[in-house]
Amino acid sequence: MTATPSPAPRLRVLAIDFGVRAMSLRLPFKFGAATLTRCPQVFVRATVDCGTSGTTEGWAAELMVPRWFDKRTDRSPADNVRDLQHALESTSSAYTRDAPTTAFALFAQNYQALMKHGEASGATALSTAFAQAVIDRAVIDALCRCVRLPMHAAFSRNLVGLCDTLLAPDLQGWDWNAWLSSLTPSSSLQARHTVGMLDALEGDVEDAAGLPVTLPAVVRRYGHRYFKIKLGGDPAIDLARLDAVLATLDAVAPGHRFTLDGNEQYADLHALKALCEGLRELPRLRARPDALLYLEQPLPRDASMDPALAELRVPAALLLDEADGTLDAFPMGRAHGWRGISSKGCKGIYKAVINRARCDQWNLAHDREADRCFMSAEDLTCQAGLAVQQDLALAALLGLAHCERNGHHYVDGFGDAPAAESSNFATAHPDLYETSAGRPRLAIRDGRIAIGSLLAQPGFAHAAEPAFDSLQPLSQAPTLV
After folding, report:
1. Rounded to whole angstroms, how far apart are CA atoms 416 and 324?
2. pLDDT exceeds cutoff 80 at 117
3. In what order do the strands lie in the sheet containing 55-63?
4. What domains can be seen in the chain, in order of their start residue?
5. pLDDT for res 32
6. 190 pLDDT above the threshold of 70
7. Span 135-153, pLDDT tens digits
8. Looking at the predicted structure, is the pLDDT value of residue 367 above 90?
């Protein structure tokens, strides 16, 4: 593909404001070695001058989840959140000092310095990248509002200014304008339900608020066909748990498809080999081998580029998630046997778009399914409102048919957000939310999430805003875990 010029407007970030809100889970969510019961959600408000298009505000939000960005045992949950806080502050300072430029150039020309600063301060790559991931979404939201276009239309016209960059040298010469204009978002997505390691598998049980507690109750309420099953790192325990999960799913969701997520819990290739051998011998999987779509991040991020991994016989494709800390992670992973990469709002919209383009570029040269690369949509417990809406819109833009969703399961509706805020979002997006027991909640019908309203309004997937005056200062985030 031959590159053509981008028509992207130049913009300047005048101010970035932060606020946080504590989110309490109605059910404990165990993933890997962590069990999440409470954590802060950060909200970002960016004031952006788009030149002749005017000045406006853009918004974004994301959970500051401890023990995901940084799993080092010598760091506390508060330390994890503090690293995210500091990254947000550093990125805000860099963006508001920058000269007018395109939205993508703002990201690209600050990326390396911010990543080096985070590394020097002892933060992980994921923790540092989180800040640009959230702030860039707010900047894009403001840009879209200035030009009066929905996010997907702004990307289709490349108004963000994606272009050749030394951050992705393998894509030099890629025609971003032509490729972006070919993306056509769907108005609905299949929701892939997360089965956490503490989730009850039997019985049809709801809580006092009428929300499902057990896996059969989840399927009855939402009609899911796709599932993501968490693993803990011990092959014998994981295989026994998986067999029990599949027994339930075979009964309540016949024909289901599923993915497995190791969350870095398999310490080395020896342990992963034992898991793979056990999976091949699991009767329920032998009966339906195509039901398993991929195996997500079983190895620790620091062990993910082991050359011997490419020789491992795996029952399904391997997908990078936590090891995707930098923009060059996917090309390096591909050379070591990884074929998939996750899109996640907390890892960055430009990273997701670049990696999606890589899949298309690489797949032009490969006809065999076993050689093709792919992208998935994964969830960091995105909450109702800005976070889940922007994450869904990104997945739709990238053409992903199903996306992991669990924020609605572990938190009731909008959590502790003011009633007026949740009502405003529900009113603005009646296809996405439904009211039950007097509370707006994410609507999943027959396993699908309707997102037409997210694609219809100017901006990045929202026609309502958070109650900013209800939020606490960013400095309080480490105290909310």
Report:
1. 32
2. yes
3. 12-31, 34-49, 55-63
4. 12-180+472-480 (3.30.390.10), 185-462 (3.20.20.120)
5. 86
6. yes
7. 999 999 999 999 999 999 9
8. no
Radius of gyration of the chain, Cα coordinates, nearest whole angstrom: 21
Question: What are the φ and ψ backbone dihedral angles of 240, each rounded to 5 degrees?
Answer: -65, -45
Please report, in angstroms and rounded to a whole number, the separation of the first and last CA atoms in the chain. 48
Query: Any idea which of 133-147, 367-381, 460-474 has the lowest mean pLDDT?
Result: 367-381
Crossing angle of helices 349-363 and 125-147, in 10° steps, is 90
Per-residue pLDDT at 4: 56
pTM: 0.97
What gap in Å lies between CA 431 and CA 157, rounded to an integer? 26
Is the distance from CB of 204 to CB of 238 less than 8 angstroms?
A: no
Could you tell me the two tokens for 154?
A: 């702004």
pLDDT, tens digit, for every residue of 290-344? Answer: 999 999 999 999 999 999 999 999 999 999 999 999 999 999 999 999 999 999 9
Say which residue the tokens 């032509």 belong to.
178
The percent of residues above 70 in pLDDT, for the chain, comes to: 99
Q: Widest CA span of the chain, in angstroms? A: 64
The structure tokens listed for 364 are 């032009």
Q: What is the mean pLDDT of residues 211-239?
A: 98
How many residues make up the chain in this entry?
481
Q: What is the 3-state secondary structure (H, E, C) of the chain?
A: CCCCCCCCCCEEEEEEEEEEEEEEEEEEEEECCEEEEEEEEEEEEEEEECHHHCEEEEEEEEECCCCCCCCCCCCCHHHHHHHHHHHHHHHHHHHHHCCCECHHHHHHHHHHHHHHHHHHCCCCHHHHHHHHHHHHHHHHHHHHHHHCCEHHHHHHCCCCCCCCCCCCHHHCCCCHHHHHHCCCCCCEEEEEEEECCCCCCCCCCECCCCCECCHHHHHHHHCCCEEEEECCCCHHHHHHHHHHHHHHHHHHCCCCEEEEECCCCCCCHHHHHHHHHHHHHCHHHHHCHHHEEEEECCCCHHHCCCHHHHHCCCCCEEEECCCCCCCCHHHHHHCCCCCEEEECCCCCHHHHHHHHHHHHHHHCCCCCHHHCCEEEECCCCCCCCHHHHHHHHHHHHCCCCEEEECHHHHCCCCCCCCHHHHHHHHHHCCCCEEEECCEEEECCECCEEECHHHHHCCECCCCCCCCHHHCECHHHHHHHC
Q: How far apart are CA 462 and CA 455, in angstroms?
A: 9
Mean pLDDT (whole number) for 48-72: 96
